[in-house]
Amino acid sequence: MLIPRQRIKIALRLWMPVLMLRIVVAHTPIQGTIHPHAIIILPNKAGTEVLVCYEDEGVYIDTYGRITKDTVLQWGEMPTSVAYLQSNQVMGWGEKAIELRSANTGNLEGVFMHKKAQKLKFLCERNDKVFFASVQSGGSSQIYFMTLGQNSMFSW
Question: Domain CNH, which positions (predicted)?
């Protein structure tokens, strides 16, 4: 029986998060069920390396589920949204702060503190701007953007 190539790719895409989650659970001391809130494909590795973010941590693994870096990305708080930026950085939006980290090393490169606790979600990146929105009950929200500077530090 011949299976169309498109179906194989779709099945692989659906299977990979489950496979990666099982590998990550086996290497962490967290008890109970772990739900990743972001799986980021790192483009500089031709799609063969991903950053799996769960709770307040992130782990770099390959498409076979093997950990590729000894580095564990440690967020200051559990982000509600995580995104890869063209500047080879990862940005995480927490309820109290926005963190900017190196995608290669996981090192903290910048922090922007909120005036009040709120849930923020990544929308998109265009040129040197990162757009995100507040998520509020009742269906209302507000859209914000940050401009990334020369050193990839951001301004509001």
Answer: 31-125
Q: How many CB atoms lie within 10 A of CB 125?
A: 19
Residue 10 covered by a domain? yes
Q: What's the total number of domains in the chain?
A: 2
Averaged pLDDT of the chain = 75
Give the predicted TM-score (pTM) of the model. Answer: 0.69
Residue range of the domain that includes 138: 88-156
Decide if 129 contacts 109 (C-beta within 8 A): no
Tokens of 27: 């290497």
pLDDT for residue 39 is more than 50: yes
Q: Of 124, 109, 103, which is closest to residue 50 (Cα–Cα)? A: 103
User: In the listed set 47, 74, 101, which residue is the last one of a domain according to the structure?
Assistant: 74
Tell me the average pLDDT across 15-20: 44
Residue 146 CA from chain centroid, whole number: 17
Indicate whether 83 belongs to any domain. Answer: no
